[in-house]
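Q: Could you fold this chain for me?
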Amino acid sequence: MLKQNDKIIRYAAVCLCAAVVLLCGYFRVFETFELQTLDLRFKARPLQKTNPDIVVIEIAEDTLEAIGRWPFDRIYHGYLIEALREAGAKQIVFDVVFSEESKSDSLLLEVVKQGKEIYLPYVFCLNRKKKGEITAEYLQDPIISGLKEASASHGHINFVPDIDGKNRKIPLYVKSDGQYYPHLAFSAALDYLNIKKEDIVFEPGRYVKLGNLVKIPLNERNELIVNYAGTWEKTFKHYSFADVIKSYALSAKNEDGEVPPICLSDFKGKTCFVALTAAGLHDLQPVPLAERYPGIGVHLNVFNSIVSGKFLVRAGRLTNLFILILWAGAVLLLSRTTIYRGLVYNGIAILFFITASFGLFIFCGVWIDIFYPVLVGIFLYLALILYHLIVEKHRSELLEKELSVARRIQESFLPQEPLKKEGFEVASSMDAARQVGGDLYQFVDLGNNKFAIMIADVSGKGIPAALFMVRIVTEFRSWAKQFTEPQKVLSRLNEELAAGARTGLFVTVSYSIIDDLSKKVRLADGGHLPLMLYEKKTDTVKEERPAKGMPLGLMPGVEFDEKDFTLSGGDVLVYYTDGVTEARSVKSEEFGFELLKEIIKREHNKSAQGILNAIKDEIRRFSAKAPQHDDITIIVLKVI
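A: Sure. Below is the predicted structure, expressed as C-alpha cells.
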C-alpha cells in the first residue's frame, strides 16, 4: 500500500511539474529572453528590399544651421510642401506634430488646402496599465483646428515598448471612446494602395484585410510586429529638408549659375516622410537593430511592410505550446541512451532547432519561440541525468559516508595548529589526491629549546594508505618523545612497522630535529626526497639528505645516517612529498626538482606562508586541467 501511494505521489509530482512548464510557456513567463532571441534573428537577417517609392526628408543639423533653431517658422513646411507638390510627390507624411498654434498657421493651411497629399500625426495618452486592446485616455497632442480637416488623412504615432523598453511592435489601431483610430503609416498606406474604407475588414486581435490585396496579421492587442528592413543608414533614400527648399528656390529663379543640390524630379510619384532627426532633438528609440534609432524609421518600416505585403508573424500560444510538447518528447527519446551519447544527440537537436527557427524567420517571416523550448530541453535532459546520478549516488552513499569519517579521523592525526617558534616561521599544507591520502607530517616540541619536524609518504593511496598512516603516527609519537637522535627514532619506527608488515605497504620519512637557539638541524632520512635549503648568504638552493636511508617497513635491522647543518637568518627549508615534483601537466611532463628550486629562490623574501602559496600556485598553473594523481604535502620553515 505504501509503495502504491509513493507511486501515486511521484506521478502527481511529474504531472504538476509538466503543468507548470506548459503554463509558463503559454503565458510567456520568459518573454524578456525570447525578445532577445528575436533581436538576434533580426541581426542575422540580410538587408531587406524596400519600396523605392519611399523616401525620408530629414530636418537634421544642416537644416537647423541653414534655417534656424527648432521649432522654426512653419512657413518653411509650406515651402517644402510646395516644392514636393510641384515635383509630383504622391504623398507627404509628416512625423512633426502641429498641436500648438503659431503665427504662420494660416499660410501653412492655405498651402495644405491646395492638394490632397498631406498626412498629419497626432499623439494619444495611452492607458498603459490596461491589458488587452491598447486604449487611449485622451488626445495628448491633437492637430490644430483647420489643418486636420485640410489634410488627406491623419493617424496616431504612438509607441508601446516591450517589457525591455525596445520598440518591436506598433499599435495599428488605438481604441478610444469606443472607436478605433489607425496608425499614421497605415492611413498613408491605404491611400497608396487605393484601398477604400468599405474594403477594409478589421478583426480585432486577429488581422486587418485590405480587400484582396493585403492581410495584415495582428496580435491580441491589435499590434503589428515591425518588419525592420535594416539599419537606419542602409535603408530608404534620405534627403535634407534644407536642400529640398534650396533646390526649389534655385529652380524658381530659373537662372544659370548655382546647381541645385537635389534634382526635384526625384520626388515624382514618391511617398515622402518628413521628420526631425537632428541630434538631441529627435526621438531616438531602442529597436532590435540598434539602441538609438529614429522614431520616423519605425513608421517608414510599417509603411513599407504594408505596401509590400511583407509581414512578420509570431506563432500563436497554442502553436508554440504544441512545439514545446513535441520538443520535450524528442528530448526524452534522445536521452534513452548513455549520458555522453545523449548529450551529443541533444546538442545536435538544439543546434538544429535554433537553425530551423532562424531559417523560418529569415526566409518565411515566421517567429517561433526559441528560448523557452531550448531552456526546457536543457533542463529536462539535466533532470534525467540528475535522476540517474541520484540512483548511482544512492548506491555509493554508504561508501562516501565511510570515507568522510575516515578523512576526519585522518585529519585528527595531523597538527591542528601551525608550529609557532620564536625566530622561525612555519607553514604547512596537505592536499590528498583522493578523499583520504597517505601523506602525513608531524610537529613535536621536544623541550630544551628543541623541536622536530617529520614528513612522510605512505606507498599507495586511498583507505589502505590512510589506515597505515594512522599506525605510523601512533608509533612515531611514542618514539619521538623517547629519543633525541633522529636516526634512533627512525630505527625503532622501522622495527615496529617491519615486524607487523602484512599489507606490503611501506613509508618514506624525513625527520629533523632543530635547535631553537643555535639553529642547528640534525636530519635523518628513510628513503624520502631531499629537503630543499635556500641559503641567503650564497643565494642558492641546495638539496639536503643523509647518505644512507631506505624506506621504513620493508625489513628489520636497517641503519639510518644523520646529517647536520646550520640555518641562518633568511634561510628557507622546504619539506615536501613526491606529489610536488611528480605533478604532471596535460602533456604528462613532470614538475621536477629544478622548477621547485627556482620558485623557492624567486620567492624567498616572502613569508613562509607566502612561499608555500607560491609553490602551490605554480603547481596549479603547471598542471592546468590535468588531474592530481598523488597527495601533495608541503612544509616551509623560514628563519627570521
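A (continued): The chain has a mean pLDDT of 91.
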